[in-house]
C-alpha cells in the first residue's frame, strides 16, 4: 500500500511510460485520440503534447452534445488540435447497421459506445491517422462506475471488471479498429499502469463524502497542469455524453419499436 503522494508520483510515471512506449518508432505516423474532454482523454492528450507527439483529437456526437462542448473548451484551453464530427439520425443508423454486421453479442452498450468509437475512428482514418488512443480501462482500475461506489470491496470489483473487459469492451473496439485498418492503443491497460493502480487502497479512488470517483487520477491530472474543470469533470458514458443513446431511442420509435433495445436486437439478425 502506497502513501498518496508516492502513489500519484508512480502513477504519473507509469502513465507517461505507457504512452511513450506506444508512440510509433522511426517514421512518423499520424496519431488520433478519441476525445470527450473528460479526465481520461484529456490526460492522454496532455501527455502526448508534453512528449511532442503529432496528434489530433477527434470528437463525435449530436449537435450541442455535452462531449462536443467540453471537447471544444478543453482543446482551446490546452492547445490541442481538434476535429469534430456532428452526427444526425441517418448517419447513426447507418453506423449501427455497419457495426451490427461484425460485432458479436450486439446489445445496447455495444451499440451506443460502438457507434461513438466507429464514428470517431472513421473520422481519424479519413484524416490519415494510423493509431488511435482511447481511455479504455480507466473506469476499471480507478473505480469509475457506480457499481464500484456501491461495492463492499472496491478492489475486488475492479478486478472483476478487468477480467470481463475482453468480452465486454475489447471485443467491441478491436473489431472496429480492424475493420477500419487502424491500431488501437489503450494506455490505461498497460501492465505497469494496472499494477500501480491496483496497489492503491480504495480510498485513493473513491471519495465517499463527495461521491467523486477516480480521485487519484484526477489529482495527478491537476498536478501535471490540467485545469481543475477538466480534471474533475464528472463521468459521462460515451453514449450519453454524445447524445447517441437519445438518438437510438428516437430512431427506434421511428422504426416502430417500443423499446430501443428491441430495435438494436433487430439489427443483429
Can you walk through the features of this model?
- The chain is globular.
- The protein has helices spanning 4-21, 39-50, 66-78, 89-102, 108-126, 138-141, 146-150, 154-179, 191-198, 215-224, 228-231, 238-241, 244-254, 260-267; strands at 31-34, 55-61, 82-86, 131-133, 183-185.
- The chain has a five-stranded parallel beta sheet with strand order 3-2-1-4-5.
- The chain has 269 residues and is an alpha/beta fold.
- Helix 2 (39-50) links the parallel strand 1 and strand 2.
- It is built from 14 helices and five strands.
Q: Number of helical segments? A: 14
Measured between the Cα atoms of the first and last residue, the distance is 49 Å
Order of strands across the main sheet:
3-2-1-4-5
How much is the average pLDDT?
Answer: 94
Strand residue percentage: 5-15%
H/E series: HEHEHEHHEHHHEHHHHHH
Overall outline: globular
The number of E-state strands comes to 5
Main beta sheet: strand number and arrangement? 5 strands, parallel
Cα-based radius of gyration, to the nearest Å: 18 Å
Class computed from helices, strands and strand pairing: alpha/beta
Share of helix, binned:
55-70%
Oligomer: single chain
Uncertain runs are: none
Amino acid at each position: 500500500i502506497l502513501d498518496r503522494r508516492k502513489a500519484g508520483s508512480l502513477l504519473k510515471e507509469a502513465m507517461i511510460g505507457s504512452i511513450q512506449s506506444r508512440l510509433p518508432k522511426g517514421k512518423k505516423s499520424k496519431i488520433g485520440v478519441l476525445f470527450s474532454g473528460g479526465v481520461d482523454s484529456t490526460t492522454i492528450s496532455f501527455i502526448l503534447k508534453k512528449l511532442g507527439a503529432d496528434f489530433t483529437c477527434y470528437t463525435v456526437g449530436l449537435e450541442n452534445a455535452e462531449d462536443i462542448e467540453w471537447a471544444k473548451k478543453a482543446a482551446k484551453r490546452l492547445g490541442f488540435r481538434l476535429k469534430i464530427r456532428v452526427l444526425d439520425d441517418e448517419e447513426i443508423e447507418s453506423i449501427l447497421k455497419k457495426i451490427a454486421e461484425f460485432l458479436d453479442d450486439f446489445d445496447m452498450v455495444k451499440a451506443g459506445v460502438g457507434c461513438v468509437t466507429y464514428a470517431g475512428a472513421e473520422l481519424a482514418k479519413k484524416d490519415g491517422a494510423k493509431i488511435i488512443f482511447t481511455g479504455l480501462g480507466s473506469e476499471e482500475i480507478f473505480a469509475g462506475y457506480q457499481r464500484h461506489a456501491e461495492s463492499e470491496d472496491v478492489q475486488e470489483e475492479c478486478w472483476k471488471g478487468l477480467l470481463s473487459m475482453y468480452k465486454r469492451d475489447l471485443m467491441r473496439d478491436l473489431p472496429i479498429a480492424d475493420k477500419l485498418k487502424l491500431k488501437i492503443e489503450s494506455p490505461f491497460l498497460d501492465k505497469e499502469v494496472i499494477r500501480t493502480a491496483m496497489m492503491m487502497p480504495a480510498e485513493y479512488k473513491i471519495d465517499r463524502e463527495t461521491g467523486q470517483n477516480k480521485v487519484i487520477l484526477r489529482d495527478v491530472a491537476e498536478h501535471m497542469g490540467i485545469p481543475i474543470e477538466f480534471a474533475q469533470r464528472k463521468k459521462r458514458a460515451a453514449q450519453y455524453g454524445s447524445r447517441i443513446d437519445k438518438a437510438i431511442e428516437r430512431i427506434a420509435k421511428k422504426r416502430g419499436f417500443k423499446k430501443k433495445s428491441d430495435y438494436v436486437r433487430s439489427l443483429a439478425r
